[in-house]
Amino acid sequence: MNIRDAYGPNRFGLSFEVFPPKSLEGDRQLATELEKLAECRPAFISCTYGAGGSTSKRTLEWCGRIQQEFSTPAMAHLTCLNSTADSLKHWMRQAFDSGINNLMVLRGDLPRNASTGGEEAPGGLRRAHELVTLARELSDSIGIGVAGYPEKHPESPDDETDLLHLGTKVRCGADAVFTQLFFDNRTFLAFRDRAIRAGIQTPIVPGIMPVTEYDSLVRISSLCGSVIPDELQSGLEAARHDPVAQFEFGVDYAIQQCRDLIRHGVPGIHFYVLNKAAAVRLIVRELLFDARDLSPIAGRTPGKQLASCDKDLVAA
Ligand code: FAD
Q: In this entry, which stretches build a coiled coil (predicted)?
């Protein structure tokens, strides 16, 4: 499936994001988890790309496996920092030749000691919009996703400047915006309103990460800068010494977030699953139960789409 079709009228695009593991054992575990994720019948599963190209082969390898072994469309992430246009074109051609129809086009994070503005390899690209343009030059039909930041990108001086740059990525040919994870829906909804006012008309898909351990909440929030609502922090903290209670609290929090987003007419949800299926399967199962009552909301029918998702999952 091309992401252009995932968010059409009356469609609801469920998607998952995984990363290439660093060990053989990790590979084995990911294969097991992908089997369970594929049972949710997502519109696609995306695989990340290591900064500076550190996983360039592995990203393609896992996207190939997602499509062939797990019969699920894949989206390959690609970053441009410290890569030449020629090497990026070569990689994209390989992706297209192996049947990958979707790219998540990114700049990549700056090295920790870099001050600002993007690093540049000789003949390289500095910003994601340049890579969107390059990808579009190679293919009109490929689905292109780009990153959006409800709490603004950390290098941006303010929300408006950040949105201006998001608008450039869209004008260069992006088909959908996938957001950085957030824990407070109000930040997403305000961002979506600002984006619409700024003329961005592509689907804006919220990124949700179910956090089921207090320690990872603190680490994740410091990495991506997302504000942690008191309710989430205190709930996970209170259950800190009880892994099962932490898991249940984190799953329930994500379910409430997703329900509210669906009520607000989002075109889909992109889950950051951290290579694990258990939490997201429970979340999708709950949304499937809801789906009976989710007939058209804001012109979309998540109920219909989710209901065709996986009946066995509901029975599980
Ligand atoms: P850009 O869109 O290029 O923006 C980077 C910064 O530059 C922003 O502050 C922007 O406002 C600013 N900017 C843009 N254009 C201009 C301009 N013309 N003048 C001045 N400033 C400008 N990282 C990985 O390494 N691998 C992955 O697989 C990966 N997947 C991701 C998936 C999602 C859905 C998200 C949200 C992020 C992902 N990231 C990934 C992280 C991403 O690479 C970083 O957030 C990175 O710092 C910015 O990437 P970008 O594509 O948003 O860059």
A: none
Q: Indicate the DSSP class of residue 157.
A: S
Nearest CA to ligand 1 atom 37: 147
Output the tens digit of pLDDT for each of the chain's 316 residues.
Answer: 899 999 977 789 999 999 999 999 999 999 999 999 999 999 999 999 997 778 899 999 999 999 999 999 999 999 999 899 999 999 999 999 999 999 999 999 887 665 544 445 566 799 999 999 999 999 999 999 999 999 999 999 999 999 999 999 999 999 999 999 999 999 999 999 999 999 999 999 999 999 999 999 989 988 888 999 999 999 999 999 999 999 999 999 999 999 999 999 999 999 999 999 999 999 999 998 777 665 555 556 676 667 666 555 655 5
State which amino acid sits at residue 47: C
Residue 48 CB–ligand 1 contact under 6 Å: yes
- pTM for the predicted model, two decimal places: 0.95
The span from the CA of 17 to the CA of 232, in Å, is 22
The total number of residues written for the chain in this structure: 316
Q: How far from chain centre, in Å, is Cα 231?
A: 24
147 lines ligand 1 (CB under 6 A): yes
Nearest CA to ligand 1 atom 11: 162
What separation in Å is there between the alpha carbon of 62 and the centre of ligand 1? 22
Helix axes 278-291, 24-38, angle to 10 degrees: 10
